[in-house]
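Hey everyone, long-time lurker, first post.

I ran two proteins through the pipeline my lab uses and got sequence/structure pairs for each. Pasting them in order. The first:
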Amino acid sequence: MPSPILLQLPPQFRLIFTGISLSQSKQDFSRKLFSCQPRRSCDPLRNAGAKEVETIKCFAEERESSGEAVFDKDGEEVNIGQDFPNGAAVPQRIPDSLSLGIREPVYEVVEVKSIGIVSTRKINRRHLLKSSGLRPRDVRTVDPSLWLTNTMPSILVREYAILLNLGSLRAIAMQERVYIFNYNRRAGKAFIDALLPRLNPKNMHGGPSMPFVLEVVEAALYSRIQRMEQRLLDLEPRVQGLLEVLPNRLTANILEELRISKQTLVELGSKAGALKQMLLDILEDTHEIRRICIMGRNCTLTKTDDMECSVPLEKEIAEEEEEEIEMLLENYLQRCESCHGQAERLLDSAKEMEDSIAVNLSSRRLEVSRVELLLQVGALCVGVGALFAGIFGMNLRSHLEERVFAFWLTTSAIFVGALLGFFIMYAYLRQKKIL
């Protein structure tokens, strides 16, 4: 029986106590999850003439926007916050998570399904986490907005998905689909072009097909390494041509082209080295490889990284896939190491040529400095002769103006003195090894 004190309260307080009654009923019902049982709400307004309300609370399957539905006694759904005819209202449901006023990011991705269907869609962060079973810290590794903070290549294996971060190629591979970020970039287009032919059954030639996740990983590595190999093929003839021309032909255009080629080789070597190190780390980690093998199967890993499957056939298939994955990674590791070695060799040749150019330029600067020093010595000697010419050019009488041989004698003395002074200075500089 409702308390008479509650019945005597003013009407504006009845809604508050009604809400408390509903929340207590919700707490009692939380002990019986995934069950559907009709309950009558203990509304203290029932004695005051309120219409009887029957609520049915069911936990349905987990959906994108799950919540509780409230029904009246006739079976019709009542919106949250809707007023009943007697003036009472159902209290508004409190959201599961607090709104911090931060706009949820929405990603525009290309979705490629395992049957080869390609579509462009927009997906928010919350739906992405629910559909892939990932955590927010996992999504940060492939988030395109965090471009500068996640530059190192990585392949992260999770329970239901594999995250691929290969520079400008970023994707999330699941059992039935793959989400590709930055699909408009060259790496994204090359990845899609490499993946779609693998999903076509006509290209299998009757051979066994790999799981979709492995096809995605192989297509990503293939497209990435193929782009590096193509850039090396385009760059190698240009570098070889520069090495043949230099150092005999030193022009500003050739030196600038050498600088750009060297910068490109440094970038390629750095990317190939990082990718090679990532593949080595995965090959050395048996746990990660076996996590890829048991994805989508009823298998678990023990503490000693042994696979335990409910069906023996699945264990045999997983073990065979483990060998295939290791051979696959080793193949691309060799190709990546070849790219890295070729880039390093071309870079070393460019550096040696740059050192040779520097030595050649230094020798030329030394010759210029020697000529400049000789000209300075000659200018000094001529300046001393000009000093005597200036003395005789003064408007003072020296009693030599009347003598005929005085001009030729003075001129000869100035020339002889300048030459003698030049050779004396030259011998002194040679003795001190300055020239």
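...and the second, right after it:
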Amino acid sequence: MQSVRLCVRTLFRDTTRIAVTKQSAGLRLLSTSKMLAYQKPCTIGDPVDDIDTPALVVCLNKLEENVGKMNTAMEKYPGVAVRPHVKTHKCPEVARMQMRAGAVGMCCQTLTEAEAMVGGGVADVFITNELVGKTKLRRLASLARQAAVSITVDDAANLQDISDVATEMGVTIHIAIEVNVGQDRCGVEPGEPAVSLAKLATSLPGVTFKGIHCYNGWNQHVRSTEERSNAVNKVVDLTRKTLEALKAAGLECPYVTGGGTGTFHFEAASKVFTEVQPGSYVFMDADYYKNLARDGNFDTEFLQSLFVLTTVQSAAASGERVVLDAGLKAVSLDSGVPMLSQRPDLTYHSGGDNHGIVTPGGDLPVGSKVWLIPGHCDPTVNLYDWIVGLRDGKVECVWPVSGRGPGN
């Protein structure tokens, strides 16, 4: 019954947006298909100028090149798998593209993301986050009936709850002990605390001890290559300490996962990590482009494929500013303001919920399209229902962002 409720809830959330409109003395319920068509910012074959803005758009050629570049990059690290993080795109279509390129599965940060991926055909998901409460854990166990499911744990009582729910529902959930390797967010301390939890995982029914999760998100945006490398060395040392403690306790640990777009080369080369979790590489953003390559220039290993397409809705007669139709509801500002693509002479400023102010106004007339490079791709994607895929100036596809949500 729980599985049925989950399926119905997911179907309703992902495919149904109900609109009620006044019609004479009564109310008319719009059909699901009509409402979905209304919501989409464009249709297949539309030119860029016909896309309703603000819209989240991706250059398909660059997206595909990024996926291929990751596959090529990882050829240097035999024995290390890639499990991309879907918190970047939250879109099963992109996940399937990554799987076809050799990814072993997907990382998810929320249950909603995991449900979207499994519903979209991904057969192996790893939730790199702690889920607390039996309501969520039953949703997790429902997924384990359809796919291989792993999750991080850093608390004994939470691990017991996972075991209880998995046993109750007749499934197996794979456990990765999260180790605090410097981010000071979630995770037990390296060494013996991780051993204690691992021992508990091996003793409980309904769960299996898979390995350890050792991720430090702050390291992804350390700017110089040397400093990023040094930061990852500290992660590797703490990870190795934990592996040695597990071995001394007689526990095998064949799975060590972590790393991201900014550091995956270092984790993959460490001879300690067996898997890396880059996510942003498929899209990139303005903040990642502040990272430096070994030559001291800005890192361009991956291409900017994601943009927020906007329209100039107002222009000051003085030319000192123009106003875009993309404000706080269209772009995330947590990692700084977006950049204007190919216009380094212009600066975006927040103008409120629905406005972005660009200074100077320059040569942008009312009605012209502006391409914004998000400051942070992950939360920007989370603001949209659709990703518009462009090729050769026309809409080739419109993909649902079915894993978006506040974190449930």
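Reply from user beta_strand_b:
Welcome! Quick read of the second one: Confidence is low (pLDDT under 50) at residues 1-38. The chain has eleven helices and 19 strands.
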